[in-house]
Specification:
about 130 residues, about 45% helix, 3 strands, AtuA_N, mainly alpha, 5 helices
């Protein structure tokens, strides 16, 4: 068993350098590529995106470009990718990532976590003074 996991992070917010993911993969060696996109401003942008462009939006679209750039190398080098780029809509992000992987012929597992969307409960929270 390896006691060391080498992590390379490629983002700190929506709009960070697109080239960073590829730089981490090429500059390695790394075991996991991470991307943290959910700065406060990003959350507002994603909410606006869902309101103006539809319920299937609400994720960090630039992450998809990064996936296209690194998916084949990640498969070849057995690098895992962990990201919160799904933002307000992790399911749609996962579906878009799966489409890209299929187009590229890359066999990587895609998983997402959801269930923390309290948007529909906000009115009752406010009525209760919370």
């Amino acid at each position: 068993m390896n006691d060391v996991i080498r992590i390379g992070n490629c983002s700190g917010y929506y709009g960070d350098r697109l080239s960073a993911a590829k730089e981490m993969i090429d500059g390695g060696p790394i075991d996991v590529l991470t991307g943290d996109y959910l700065a406060e401003l990003t959350m507002a942008i994603l909410y606006n995106q869902m309101q103006t462009r539809g319920e299937n939006m609400g994720y960090v679209g630039t992450f998809l470009k990064q996936i296209k750039d690194v998916a084949q190398d990640c498969q070849q080098k057995n690098i895992k990718i962990v990201s919160n780029a799904g933002g307000l809509n992790p399911r749609s992000m996962a579906e878009e990532v799966e489409k890209i992987l299929t187009e590229l012929g890359v066999d990587l597992k895609v998983a997402y976590i959801d269930g923390d969307d309290i948007k529909d409960d906000m009115a009752s929270f406010q009525a209760d003074g919370e």
